Amino acid sequence: MVRIGNLQLPDFPLLLAPMEDVSDPPFRAVCKDGGADLMYTEFISSEGLIRDAIKSRKKLDIFEEERPIGIQIFGGDEESLGLAAKIVEVTGPDLLDINFGCPVKKVALKGAGAGVLRDIDLMVRLTDSVVRSTNLPVTVKTRLGWDDQTKNIEEVAERLQDVGIQALAIHGRTRTQMYKGEADWTLIGKIKNNPRIKIPIFGNGDIDSPEKALEYKNRYGIDGIMIGRAAIGYPWIFNEIKHFFQTGEHLAPPSLEDRIAVCRKHLRRSIEWKNPIVGINEMRRHYSNYLKGLPNIKDYRLKLVTMKTEEEINAVLDEIGQVYAGYTFEKAPIKLVDYHQNCPVN
Fold first, then answer.
1. Is the whole-model pTM more than 0.90?
2. Which of 59, 138, 157, 336 could cysteine-pair with 229, CB 3.0–4.6 Å?
3. 213, 247, 281: which is the final residue of a domain?
4. Measuring CA to CA, how many Å separate 341 from each of 12, 104, 179?
């Protein structure tokens, strides 16, 4: 059993990473079905919450079937983060997470997200402000450091634990790496094995298969794994990893029927949560990921992204189901994309 404050998670939990313009309630719903043990909202600007920005407030929406769930906030001002923490607490999440890891320029170069890695004293003060402002368990997601010359995550882990965080998730890259190169989990393992560290340590970065998840679990001794990009278009990855841990065998890849069913659920939830126009428009980015591997799918994909009603989209999905009936998907490696390229941060 892994504990984050009073929150109890199963042994070696699998976490869905918070991803801007991805980890909304419709996406979280299919990942919950896929076996995610703990999920997070998209990150929310502390300044946006305080000035009552509609988009920021909308991201606070959580639903009972999603639990346990954390709300993630970011910002570079102590007072604003503290006030945002009070606002978040009213919505009743299971925990509050601080983003010190987002590498995009709009965030990092304004002194928030991974930008805070250049000033560890500020990071500690920001974290302390949040911890003192809420009764929720406070956790942090961050990176190894700003660049290869400032990999200060060991100091960060100890100091953030000292001011009261209840868990730490670490992406195995620096800010300057963005999502390029291979994630380095060596320091993540070193932190987990530091006798001073008592809080759960979750590893993040490049987990794209059950084999890699098991290898990293055994090699680095972490308390759980956070999965982000690999779940985009493939929410089944959580249950596949769990099954492999338990049996040493692979689950069969999701069938065409499974993929279409997830498309329909994701679309329905998107429409319900947003509205028909926005829900349909924002769903368009997901079809190619769910249907990846189908041969000669381009024309159908074009239809899906141009249809304007749920009925029209479902008719196209029906047609795909008929045309490709009996198609067997091969287990192909999951391609990890830099989702920030297509998902602007606001």
1. yes
2. 336
3. 247
4. 31, 9, 10
